[in-house]
Amino acid sequence: MKIAIGTTNPTKVNAVKEAFASLISAEFQAVSVASGVAEQPLSDEETISGAINRANAARLECDVTIGIGLEGGVVKTKMGYFLCNWGAIIDGNNEPIVAGGSRILLPTELGEQVFNGKELGDVMDEYTNQHNVRQNEGAIGIFTSGYVNRTEMFTHLSKLLLGQYLFSTQSGNEN
Ligand SMILES: O=P(O)(O)OP(=O)(O)OP(=O)(O)OC[C@H]1O[C@@H](n2cnc3c(O)ncnc32)[C@H](O)[C@@H]1O
Ligand SMILES: [Mg+2]
């Protein structure tokens, strides 16, 4: 099976590879594609669209059977600002399969900066005095004391996608 991944961010690419490794053997191509939404999505709907667009674009660009897109966003709720993560898997024949990843509350001042126009990746670099948090442990890694890093979070999300995809392609379960 050939899989196209719509990003070159190593946390996402490694996550997809790891999720597939435990289930089936596959070849991977990672390509940088447009998400078709803002660099910093600010709602679940926008983040889901980004994931679906990435999956579609990667599949078409690599001319393979399956495309996967993963997208991070921030949502504002009555409880405060939550990190959100969404993923999509697309095979061109069926409706995209979409699944959500972990959500954790961000410190209010960081969420406010994001809703005032900054990207969370940049906000996290300033907050931690580190470089490229987004391609390393991620905000989720920082705020869980490294207990759950961004790769691990996306691996779980990728397993949700792959598992549902395999279920849907078993005879009788097609959508
Ligand atoms: O190269 P791509 O695939 O675009 O990877 P990215 O790190 O930019 O990730 P997203 O576009 O999916 O995320 C949208 C924005 O939210 C930021 N972001 C999302 N989750 C994050 C996390 O856990 N840690 C740091 N930044 C995060 C990210 O850096 C972007 O600014
Ligand atoms: Mg991005």
From TrEMBL:
<dbReference type="InterPro" id="IPR026533">
    <property type="entry name" value="NTPase/PRRC1"/>
</dbReference>
<dbReference type="Pfam" id="PF01931">
    <property type="entry name" value="NTPase_I-T"/>
</dbReference>
<feature type="domain" description="Non-canonical purine NTP phosphatase/PRRC1">
    <location>
        <begin position="6"/>
        <end position="156"/>
    </location>
</feature>
<feature type="binding site">
    <location>
        <begin position="7"/>
        <end position="12"/>
    </location>
    <ligand>
        <name>substrate</name>
    </ligand>
</feature>
<keyword id="KW-0547">Nucleotide-binding</keyword>
<keyword id="KW-0479">Metal-binding</keyword>
<comment type="subunit">
    <text>Homodimer.</text>
</comment>
<keyword id="KW-0378">Hydrolase</keyword>
<comment type="function">
    <text>Phosphatase that hydrolyzes non-canonical purine nucleotides such as XTP and ITP to their respective diphosphate derivatives. Probably excludes non-canonical purines from DNA/RNA precursor pool, thus preventing their incorporation into DNA/RNA and avoiding chromosomal lesions.</text>
</comment>
<feature type="binding site">
    <location>
        <begin position="63"/>
        <end position="64"/>
    </location>
    <ligand>
        <name>substrate</name>
    </ligand>
</feature>
<keyword id="KW-0460">Magnesium</keyword>
<keyword id="KW-0464">Manganese</keyword>
<dbReference type="InterPro" id="IPR002786">
    <property type="entry name" value="Non_canon_purine_NTPase"/>
</dbReference>
<dbReference type="InterPro" id="IPR050299">
    <property type="entry name" value="YjjX_NTPase"/>
</dbReference>
<dbReference type="InterPro" id="IPR029001">
    <property type="entry name" value="ITPase-like_fam"/>
</dbReference>
<protein>
    <recommendedName>
        <fullName>Probable inosine/xanthosine triphosphatase</fullName>
        <ecNumber>3.6.1.73</ecNumber>
    </recommendedName>
</protein>
<comment type="similarity">
    <text>Belongs to the YjjX NTPase family.</text>
</comment>
<keyword id="KW-0546">Nucleotide metabolism</keyword>
<feature type="binding site">
    <location>
        <position position="63"/>
    </location>
    <ligand>
        <name>Mg(2+)</name>
    </ligand>
</feature>
